[in-house]
Amino acid sequence: MSDLTQGREGDSAPPDIKTIIDTESPFPPIRRVAMFRPFRWLSLGFSDFKASGGSSIFYGVCFAVMGLVLNLVLHNAPEYVSALSCGFLLAGPLLALGLYDISRRIENLRSGMLGSVFSMRGRWSNIGVLALVLAVVLMVWARASLIIFALFYNKGMPTMHGFLEQLFSLDHLEFVLVYACIGFIFASIVFAISWVSIPLMLDRDTDAITAMIISVVSLFINAPATMVWALLIVISVVIGFLTWNLGFIVLMPIIGHATWHAYKEVVGTEADRR
Does residue 164 lie within any of the structural domains? Predict the structure, then answer.
């Protein structure tokens, strides 16, 4: 195992990025980034958002519309709205696949939203395996969410208005804590296996199992940075919900583009070994 600093495009790396090279490992080198490097990813994501024209807005509108439709259809069933809203976010890394491809196209001086829509072409088998894993996690989460509601509201489910009032009161603090803890466990699992794995499969056609392993290893190597990154994502999601999902039009594309840059900086290449 040896250490080597390596920048993008062969340039010298910033002092807060270090490449960890294991010449005996079949996996790509992993770069260790500084704790606050995620803010740089957001900056790069915003640059891609501006450079993409209307392509990124299209995906942002899709996120916002899905959230609005979910709230309209299930406005009288807060237990389902809560479960499916969180589940929708658990599937977010996969739904942002087109945004990763837009960033890849910008990086390679190519353009076109239509190509990003079909970015899974030729990779269905690999990305499909991860999609199946996320679907299983989503179904288990939905079931666990409904069980938590049933345990704390065993005399009948609340209305949406009543639920929101109770959510921000101290009378149901136990429910909020239990729901948040269980949700945190599911969100952590999804984040660990997907935060760089989907861009990796898109970019290098890596198989799903290998990509998930690389993603988890990258998370532990970059624990401080990934905690900051996860917190930034949570803040963006909260802002999106507080703006009646309209904030997702801008925030989700920026997060998606930033995720591509996180992958590019964290997962090294064979050139790093040489």
Answer: yes
Residue 92 lies in a domain: yes
Q: Do the beta carbons of residue 254 and residue 60 sit within 8 Å?
A: no
Contacts 24+ apart (CB under 8 A), 71-79: 71/245, 75/160, 76/159, 76/160, 77/157, 77/160, 78/157, 78/158, 78/159, 78/160, 78/163, 78/164, 79/145, 79/146, 79/149, 79/153, 79/157
Instruction: Find the distance separating the first CA and the last CA of the chain, reported in whole Å.
Output: 13
Could you list the residue range(s) of the whole structural domain that residue 227 is in?
A: 53-265
What's the number of domains the chain is made of? 1
Residue in this structure with the two tokens 């938590």, named with its chain if needed: 148
In a domain? residue 2 = no
Nearest to 103 by CA among 41, 150, 154: 41
Tens digits of residue pLDDT in 95-137 = 888 899 888 888 876 655 544 554 555 566 778 888 899 989 9
Query: What pTM was computed for the model?
Result: 0.82
Q: Which residue has the tokens 């996969």?
A: 94
